[in-house]
Amino acid sequence: MDGTVPAGLLASVRERRPLVHHITNSVTINDCANITICTGAAPVMAEAPEEVAEMVAAAGALVLNIGTLSAVQVEAMLIAGRRANELGIPVVVDPVGAGATTFRTGTVQRLLEALDVAVLKGNAGEIGVLAGTGGSVRGVDSGGVAGDPVETARECARVTGTVVAMTGEVDIVVDGKRAYLVRNGDPAMDRLSGTGCMAASMVGAFAAVADDYAVSSAAALAAFGRAGERAAMAGARGPYSFRTALFDELAGLEPRDLAEHARIEEL
Ligand SMILES: Nc1ncnc2c1ncn2[C@@H]1O[C@H](COP(=O)(O)OP(=O)(O)O)[C@@H](O)[C@H]1O
Ligand SMILES: Cc1ncsc1CCOP(=O)(O)O
Ligand SMILES: [Mg+2]
Question: Which Pfam family is one of this chain's hits (predicted)?
Fold first, then answer.
């Protein structure tokens, strides 16, 4: 994919500043709010079942992240997701820790059955579990997939009917037909909690300004990865100064830099 595509979508996010409604976990909620702002969009976190239908109506995308799930959150996710579907607002699901417990795996399956999900964004282990082809998950960490990662992502897209964005050293984005490999990023991104959640926030922000969610997801991951590359070049002293640089580099990321450095290959 030509770099002008992700660059154009980044510029659209900054111009339109879509509201991204999150129902998300209590570990990385603040990171997700700030990465959404650094991307150029506007976050809102709202999870009371009493208000989510009203809130999502003002949003450009809905991000459902199951990282610290509870029964009442599931109820809110279903209410918000159904309203988003009625209004044609894209729904992104981050299946954090799917495979680690029956409650997590079952909840993702329930969301996928009840809702029209635009993008399922998970790490390799989570996507392998949901594909049914084998994935290993410990807590929220991926232990990888059983077979070929691209085939795993394709199978997950086939069984779920969604665009699947599987993160890792190389991100893989697939729908029923196409497959994109996104080679941007830095290993330091794997040494922080929350980069997967932040990736989902960005996938949501980009989906809000796009019709083609495979293209917008690959673009979002390229932009995040490029910010990671620039943060590493800025010379962080360790994981936490890298984290600060990651936010700063994303906020300052120029569409023309992304146009030049996005590495998205279509298979
Ligand atoms: N080794 C790596 N090299 C480059 N980028 C990476 C690497 N590991 C993770 N990333 C990036 O970090 C983000 C989070 O991915 P990942 O670690 O798979 O998610 P999770 O936190 O859900 O396990 C993604 O944008 C991914 O591209
Ligand atoms: C550590 C942890 N525990 C529950 S949610 C969460 C954060 C996971 O974030 P990510 O999957 O983005 O690293
Ligand atoms: Mg994750």
Answer: HK
State which of 32, 190, 246, 264 you would mutate to test the pocket of ligand 1, scoring each by most atoms of that ligand within 8 A of its C-beta: 190
CB-ligand 1 contact for 249 (6 Å cutoff): no
Q: 194 labelled as ligand-binding?
A: yes
Determine if residue 177 is labeled as part of a ligand binding site: no
- Assess whether the C-beta atom of 12 lies below 6 angstroms from ligand 1: no
What does the H/E/C string look like for the chain?
Answer: CCCHHHHHHHHHHHHHCCEEEEECCCCCHHHHHHHHHHHCCEEEECCCCCCHHHHHCCCCEEEEECCCCCHHHHHHHHHHHHHHHHHCCCEEEECCCECCEHHHHHHHHHHHHHCCCCEEEEEHHHHHHHHCCCEEEECCEEEEECCCHHHHHHHHHHHHCCEEEEECCCEEEECCCCEEEECCCCHHHHHCCCHHHHHHHHHHHHHCCCCCHHHHHHHHHHHHHHHHHHHHHCCCCCHHHHHHHHHHHHHCCCHHHHHHHCCEEEC
Task: Report the pLDDT value the prediction gives residue 58, as an integer from 0 to 100.
Answer: 98
Q: What is the pLDDT of residue 236?
A: 87
Q: What is the pLDDT of residue 241?
A: 96
Q: Which CATH homologous superfamily contains domain 4-266?
A: Ribokinase (3.40.1190.20)
Mean pLDDT per 10-residue interval, the chain, length 267 residues:
96 98 98 98 98 98 98 98 98 97 97 98 97 93 92 96 98 96 98 97 98 98 98 93 97 98 97
Tell me if 197 CB under 6 Å of ligand 2: yes
- The domain ranges of the chain are 4-266
